[in-house]
Amino acid sequence: MFARSVILLMTCLVAIPAAMAQATSLSTSMNVHVFPSQGQDEVQQSMDEAECFNWAADRTGTDPFRLSQQAADQMAASEQAMAQAQSAGQGSTGRAAAGGAVAGGVIGGVFGSSSRSGWKGAAAGAATGAVIGNSRKRGAQAQATEQVAAESAQAQAATQAQMDDFKVAFSTCLEAKDYIARF
User: Of 14, 130, 172, 182, which is most buried by a Cβ count within 10 Å?
Assistant: First the structure.
């Protein structure tokens, strides 16, 4: 029984520091490098970081962890919008070809001298309609893709500005508590 207790105690003494070493501090999770300039221990630094995190969140109105989730959601929405923009206009080539075939058939039938003129006109109209439809589809897709990309870049810039503002507030608070903080 005594040996079992000693083994359990030894296991705990080895496992606890290892688990603590793997724990990520608030500053580390936000890529802010913090150095205790007055010899503060890890417990004190952790408490100071939590206090400064709350202070910075109150002052800036930004929670970096929610902000990163919002950024991930925005990225997913942008990817979905890009996919929709790529598929927009599918089928417009076929509609344009059909419209061209009808117009070509009518024109060929009216102005043609033989019974085949309508069919030839329809074939030429279908080809012309397909080319016009493809051109319109590519233009619409390119415009939609550019718009989605611009909106995505704008959202990323706004998110980065909010995160930078938070990091400045967080670092300022830590520096007031005698830490050196850089990001």
Answer: 130
